[in-house]
């Protein structure tokens, strides 16, 4: 019997998208991830917004809105949780807490925290590190205040899990003054890397602090982390989410000399370089076709050489990063694949693991071809386990909200 249940709304904002989920959460067995009561998504394109909503009973809604402000569209999305055919609760008053994924917490915002005016000001101060994302997330906080009043809101930071990586991994080898200004490796996707660490430990029947893990978050954005003793000790993303692996439209790491060369030779300025590296590179930039791995694989089947080159570069960098993280760890107990590509592309997993037999990693080809999520797809005699784990960022945020409330109530009960 659950000791206490809460209805928690989770907002996950991006610069061009907005996700929202509503969960009922309480005391439950570790690893149990229920379907949300309700979930919705907005995709902004030009001057229109596409909304898709569904609830646990299967009721669904899709519509496109033209000419409305972001705030108006987000309010329309959220009201669908308690109004109309997709409503999952009777009233918005049933929502007891709202959790927000905040992409960047800077050097000081690490642990999940209730958003007070002081915390709000701190988030605003670090928004210069990721202005598009953080401003969208703060907009969500204001919209929730407007709709739900003084319901507690919690910020969960995507950079938080990586804040304790050692200085040798965190500090860039430029002038030390950079570090004093807050220029350092922050890392991202931390909410999901942390969740995958906990889930991997459950699947392996081990204490998280006894494991050496390499977690591969491969989606439209990609990052790999080295996790030891329950902590991230290195990761491929850096000061921004542009560093590290090749991604859907992002270049990942490139020689900075290329950028200064293009500035001199072609007169490129900062905004144009930013546009090229973030939106016209990666799988899209090399293939000329798409940022979606499924499209790349389909084009390879049709003999497209640039699609094959894009795939080869992508896999080369993933494999190299896995090897680098294993070296940082001094060995590895398991490699985890998660997020859209990591969960759904047997081809990427097979190619990424193909050069790692020297480390004792042996992939079960049959299990890899048709894996169940949250499953070990290594052979029985593999020294390194290979896990495919469903990304559950929204659920992880809801759990952090519940833990904050549970901790507070436990402390209050002890005081009384």
Notes on the protein architecture:
40% of the residues lie in helices and 20% in strands. By secondary structure, the chain is α/β, with parallel strands linked by helices. It folds into 2 domains: 6-157, Nucleotidyltransferase, domain 5 (2-Layer Sandwich); 206-393, ATPase, nucleotide binding domain (Nucleotidyltransferase, domain 5, 2-Layer Sandwich), CATH 3.30.420.40. Strands 5-4-3-2-1-6-8-7 form an 8-stranded mixed beta sheet, with helices on both faces. The chain has a 6-stranded mixed beta sheet with strand order 11-10-9-12-14-13, with helices on both faces. α2 runs antiparallel to α3. The longest helix has 25 residues, at 305-329. The mean pLDDT is 92.
Compose a concise summary of this entry.
With 416 residues, the protein is α/β, with parallel strands linked by helices. The chain is built from 15 helices and 14 strands.
